[in-house]
Amino acid sequence: MSVQTWTWILVGVTFALYFGIAIWARAGSTKEFYVAGGGVSPLANGMATAADWMSAASFISMAGLISFMGYDGSVFLMGWTGGYVLLALLLAPYLRKFGKFTVPDFIGDRYYSNTARTVAVICALIVSFTYVAGQMRGVGIVFSQFLQVDINVGVIIGMSVVLIFAFLGGMKGITYTQVAQYCVLIFAFMVPAFFISMQMTGNIIPQIGMGGEVESGTFLLDKLDALHTELGFNEYTSGTKSTWDVFAITLALMVGTAGLPHVIVRFFTVPKVKDARKSAGLALLFIAILYTTAPAIAVFSRTNLIETVSNKEYEQIPEWFKNWENTGLIAWSDKNGDGKIQYVAGDALTGKPEYTEQRGTYGERLVSNATMQKNELYVDRDIMVLANPEIANLPNWVIALVAAGGLAAALSTAAGLLLVISTSISHDLIKKQLKPDISDKGELLAARISIFVAIIIAGLFGIYPPGFVAAVVALAFGLAAASFFPAIILGIFDKRMNKQGAVAGMIVGIVLMLFYMIRYKTGLIGVMEPLPKSEWWFGTSPEGFGTIAMTVNVVVSIVVSRLTAAPPKEVQELVENIRIPSGAGEASSH
Predict the structure, then answer these.
(1) Among 1.10.4160.10, 3.40.50.1100, 1.20.140.10, 2.60.120.480, what is the CATH number of 3-304+390-470?
(2) Whole-prediction pTM value?
(3) Three-class SS of residue 369?
């Protein structure tokens, strides 16, 4: 059977499973909609948390980023893994003990202020929408290639799917759907890795295969270093980033992880604090399976890409290249007219590829040339995991399986994020502030309407994306680090932290991060271009600036809180109480 037939079958079966679960787990109350009734087992919650956590950025983009960045890409592995450990040990049990559904709910009650709650809602919406943009784009990329539809059509299909199981089931439906999605995505990620590791090194375990020997008796990493050097790139195993920037990005990703509202809320779905700790440990185990395999897939795909494409005549190019050319995510322009693809260091294009239907002499896509650069090949990093099975010439069912896994990863995280957006509006804005006497049924309706609106906005972000998936996601982590993390961590461990300090810190942190992102990463469209690397403050990249914005937030919070009145005595006692590891009750909506 063809790849497309296999894809329709596997995607159809997995989607039918997700829809079946959503219908079975329909939410009948706000408690079921927000925290799945608080009765999820640690094992199921661990798998759901892992699926929630491992987004399109983890499944599709992370290995792609590492394959191009080499050693520098390790910041994503260290930051995201370390951040999850930080979340599980320092935050989750205490937030669960506090017994609130959402991060804005915690901040509103801990800082005895609706102003703090509103600022937290705005921060949650900014972080979640930035993050969900990457997920919807990932969905579009998968659909466009494997189901042969336009990327924007793919985004719309993805929006419709998420709407059904998020709208019906809320957290209850999403939790059990995410258990199924974890099984699909981890199977889809590992099967090609086993195949390719065996094919290239004779060892079926990819983590070991990455450091193994290839046919010539050379170690695979040494071979890749040699290929890189030959083509003018830096050695794959050496880094180019400054030590400070590596530290700043890693820390921003870590503390950003710990402040991500869609992951934190998962710890309210289990019956007890002890179960929150258990599910955090299990989730870490489930996450580690993918995270330890991603560097191996990066090495395999990078080596295969160079060997199958570099310096080859167009007639020799394998079918996978021509398949992906049609999506606009890989492109070639024969600048020197020799009929061969010259893949060397340097940008292939000026801006994004601009295609015409016209073909050149050798059938290459005509693209906007960066004529000063010798490199003739443009590769979007987000295709490396998805194209990897095709590059390695694996069976069609494996290629289709990866498509189903990519969709599972993107949709599971998108659903979790959209629920955060929904609860921020219906629970923290409407129930807690605008209309406190709203009925349970009315609040549930508001939550569902919020999800509907949020999905439309998320879809627009997917259709008009601000960058490739993992870059967008990395910026979301910076925003979470700059805004939420200090307010949460100081709220738990500093009795003296008051509402004035927390509000001032969150506002300063997120405004500073947004300014830096816009000025140094995206620019203002039609007004100004992003400033170059030479202009970075303290040599800090936009992805790492969350560390500086977070530090400013902490300093502002502490200084302002010490210059203003201490929190009420009952709030200080509450802070003492949540650090006592016993006697936690159920999550409460009141």
Answers:
(1) 1.10.4160.10
(2) 0.78
(3) strand
